[in-house]
């Protein structure tokens, strides 16, 4: 794998193209589909499942692996080969598109976990679901989970769990201080407050909510803290925020890659959640539309309506999100985790 990447990376460097990591863009996903289609045509392998999930076809494994070593499907994508391979597996795995789990499937998942433990590969084969799917679903159903409004106790547990994780990740616990005041005034970069947090670990510490609930609640709390309690999506501010959201997403439509610096001091996931609500409530048959088609509809149909509503309320249309240079880059932990404030909002 390393040898393959070395040759490819040299080629990209000669073209002045940087190697990418992180979320795949729509353009890259389309390129993967194109490359896999050409690979299948070139090698005679019947379908993408055989190419990417060779272990499911033991009688053809040797032949397919030989073809894999001779041909590549990473053409035109400046990323490590292994990451492209993993992404292709996610795109083409038919077990990723099985819909919601039935009550019977959930009971079977509990049963198989009792037998096989965390051997998600084994369980996924039995249930014909992807490894990630069965692991995440089990995380949701393994214990009694609360729904609805969070209690003050649950919110405090979440705050403490996230604070503990962030302190450990930043190695802040090693910086012993003689006073609680100076210890709580430690600073942290804004991205570290929400990026790549270990949500399954946080879920375990909270105990009564599954990881996705914890993540959504934390994004809500963090948005409130970063915006100093301003109601960003209420009233006229809400209209302006939706207008800004559509305009900003229009600027990224060709890549489908959200630049968090285009928005306020709020977590990326919070912005994505607001956009999801907007498209679900405003775009007919949005599930059948591409990302670009959704943006075009919002821009052509919804944006004029929102601007007219805002105009009637006699509010300026020109106020956009603060620039990246205006955004607060660093927060004191006391600003985010001050126990004297009521965080259950």
From TrEMBL:
In terms of Pfam families, this protein maps to: Myb_DNA-bind_6
- Residues annotated as domain HTH myb-type: 93-130
This chain's protein is named: Transcription termination factor 1
Query: Highest taxon of the source?
Result: Eukaryota
Q: Which PANTHER family match?
A: TRANSCRIPTION TERMINATION FACTOR 1
GO BP of this protein:
termination of RNA polymerase I transcription
- Choose one Gene Ontology CC annotation of this protein and give it: nucleolus
């Amino acid at each position: 794998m390393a040898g393959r990447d070395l040759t490819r990376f040299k080629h990209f460097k000669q073209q002045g193209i940087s190697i990418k990591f992180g979320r795949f863009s729509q353009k890259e996903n389309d390129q993967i589909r194109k490359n896999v289609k050409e690979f299948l045509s070139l090698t005679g392998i019947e379908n993408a499942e055989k190419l990417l999930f060779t272990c499911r076809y033991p009688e053809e494994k040797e032949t397919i692996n030989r073809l894999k070593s001779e041909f590549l499907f990473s053409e035109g994508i400046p990323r490590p080969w292994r990451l492209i391979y993993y992404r292709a597996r996610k795109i083409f795995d038919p077990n990723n598109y099985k819909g919601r789990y039935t009550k019977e499937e959930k009971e079977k998942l509990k049963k198989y976990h009792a037998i096989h433990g965390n051997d998600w590969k084994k369980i996924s084969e039995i249930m014909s679901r992807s490894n990630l799917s069965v692991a995440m679903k089990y995380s949701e159903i393994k214990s009694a989970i609360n729904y609805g409004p969070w209690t003050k106790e649950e919110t405090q547990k979440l705050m403490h769990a996230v604070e503990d994780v962030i302190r450990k990740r930043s190695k802040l616990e090693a910086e012993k201080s003689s006073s609680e005041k100076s210890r709580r005034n430690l600073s942290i970069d804004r991205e570290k407050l929400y990026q790549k947090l270990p949500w399954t670990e946080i879920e375990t510490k909270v105990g009564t909510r599954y990881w996705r609930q914890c993540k959504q609640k934390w994004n809500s709390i963090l948005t409130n803290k970063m915006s100093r309690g301003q109601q960003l999506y209420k009233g006229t501010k809400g209209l302006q925020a939706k207008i800004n959201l559509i305009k900003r997403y229009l600027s990224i439509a060709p890549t489908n890659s959200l630049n968090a610096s285009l928005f306020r001091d709020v977590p990326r996931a919070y912005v994505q959640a607001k956009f999801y609500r907007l498209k679900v409530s405003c775009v007919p048959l949005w599930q059948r539309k591409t990302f670009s088609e959704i943006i075009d509809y919002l821009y052509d149909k919804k944006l004029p309506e929102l601007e007219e509503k805002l105009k009637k309320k006699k509010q300026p249309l020109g106020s956009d999100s603060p620039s990246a240079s205006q955004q607060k880059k660093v927060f004191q932990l006391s600003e985010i985790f001050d126990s004297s404030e009521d965080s259950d909002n």
